[in-house]
């Protein structure tokens, strides 16, 4: 039991560090300094960095499951979904860094799996939020674009409800303007 608790100290610290700074920050000496522990403890619990990274992925899967469970309860994008994202800031940032780590296919694979699960949960809510009357498939593709746009702009410092509100509102206005242009073109009332 004590061994598991001590290993957890390392994985939680590594998880937070990865969320804040990305893959390149995961260095045994850096973790040992942060925890004020001897790096021999790291080797005792994990053996090497690859085993540790596997533990971080396992931990992320657990935290992502909690995040997904919370968004299943959401009834509105603004503010409920935004609040859940902020509540799960560390896993959300960890997830973003999984995609940014290009040389680790297992990172990308886990991130894609979790994103697909989120898409299923968010489908109806996002479609309704945009006011789409037709295809929820198109709405989900747009959700992915918006999520990617927000991820590109997001940092540990700026991830809050207002940041999400601005980004998503901007995306919603774009799609509404495109729908209006399309409707005007269909009725022949478009003016140039």
Verbal overview:
- With 192 residues, the protein is an all-alpha fold.
- The chain has one domain (2-187): Tetracycline Repressor, domain 2 (Orthogonal Bundle), CATH 1.10.357.
- The protein contains 9 helices and no strands.
- Helix 1 packs across helix 6 (89-100) and helix 7 (105-130) packs across helix 8 (136-153).
- It is elongated.
- The termini are far apart.
- 19% of the residues are buried.
Layout of SSEs?
Elements: H1 2-21, H2 28-35, H3 39-46, H4 49-72, H5 77-87, H6 89-100, H7 105-130, H8 136-153, H9 161-187
Could you give a quick summary of the protein structure above?
The protein has 9 helices and no strands. The mean pLDDT is 92.
Q: In terms of structural class, how would the helical and strand content be classed? A: mainly alpha
Order of helices and strands: HHHHHHHHH
- Termini gap: 72 Å
Strand portion: under 5%
Radius of gyration: 20 Å
| Nearest-integer average pLDDT | 92
Report the count of strand segments. Answer: 0
- The number of distinct helices, counting runs of at least 4 residues, comes to 9
Q: Say which CATH homologous superfamily is assigned.
A: Tetracycline Repressor, domain 2
Mind telling me which CATH architecture this is? Answer: Orthogonal Bundle
How many discrete domains? 1
Largest sheet: none
Can you tell me the overall shape?
elongated
Portion of residues within helices: over 70%
Mind telling me the CATH class? Mainly Alpha
Uncertain segments are: none
CATH topology: Tetracycline Repressor, domain 2
What structural keywords apply?
192 residues; mainly alpha; Tetracycline Repressor, domain 2; 9 helices
């Amino acid at each position: 039991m004590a061994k598991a608790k001590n290993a957890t100290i390392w994985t939680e610290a590594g998880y937070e560090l990865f969320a804040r700074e990305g893959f390149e920050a995961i260095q045994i000496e850096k973790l040992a300094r942060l925890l004020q522990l001897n790096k021999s403890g790291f080797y005792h619990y994990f053996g090497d960095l690859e085993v540790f990274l596997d533990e971080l992925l396992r931990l992320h899967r657990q935290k992502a499951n909690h995040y997904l469970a919370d968004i299943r309860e959401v009834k509105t994008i603004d503010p409920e979904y935004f609040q859940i994202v902020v509540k799960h800031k560390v896993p959300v940032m960890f997830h973003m860094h999984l995609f940014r780590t290009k040389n680790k296919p297992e990172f990308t694979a886990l991130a894609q799996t979790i994103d697909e699960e989120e898409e299923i949960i968010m489908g109806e809510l996002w479609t309704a939020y945009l006011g789409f009357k037709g295809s929820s498939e198109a709405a989900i593709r747009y959700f992915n674009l918006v999520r990617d746009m927000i991820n590109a702009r997001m940092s540990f410092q700026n991830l809050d409800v207002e940041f999400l509100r601005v980004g998503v509102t901007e995306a919603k206005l774009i799609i509404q303007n495109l729908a209006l242009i399309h409707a005007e073109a269909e009725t022949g009332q478009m003016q140039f």
